[in-house]
Design a protein that fits this description.
Keywords: Actin capping, Actin-binding. With about 120 residues, the chain is an alpha+beta fold. The protein has three helices and two strands. Strands 1-2 form a two-stranded antiparallel sheet.
Length: about 120
């Protein structure tokens, strides 16, 4: 009849990130089927409101919740497994900029102080 419907759907998410490499994420959430009943009568507008309410619940409970928890854990789990622990040179990067400047000065012959 005009007061009830069965609704279902799916959300496909495809995200792309470039972090020194090509990382793509694909996720699919299947929703339903759910029986939706119009409250307050059998009119088409009542049924449409009930369907919109069901879709909003799915978005909040299933889609946004899952995506939020996935993105929260992504750096600790998924992306961490893709990153190299050591660079290709097999030596750790020394992030002390001063050390690099001193080494560069000595390599170019400017390592000593000039006295005038």
């Amino acid at each position: 009849g005009g007061g009830a419907a069965t609704v279902s759907g799916a959300v496909d998410v495809r995200a792309h990130a470039f972090e020194g490499g090509n990382v793509q994420l694909r996720s699919r959430v299947d929703l339903g089927p759910a029986e939706v009943v119009a409250s307050g009568g059998t009119s088409a507008s009542s049924l449409a409101k009930a369907i919109i309410h069901q879709i909003s619940r799915w978005e909040t409970d299933h889609v946004q919740g899952r995506l939020g928890s996935m993105y929260d854990s992504m750096g600790d789990t998924m992306l961490k497994s893709l990153r190299r622990v050591m660079p290709v040179t097999r030596t750790r990067m020394d992030w002390n900029v001063g050390t690099h400047r001193i080494a560069k000065n000595f390599a170019t012959g400017g390592g000593g102080e000039k006295r005038g």
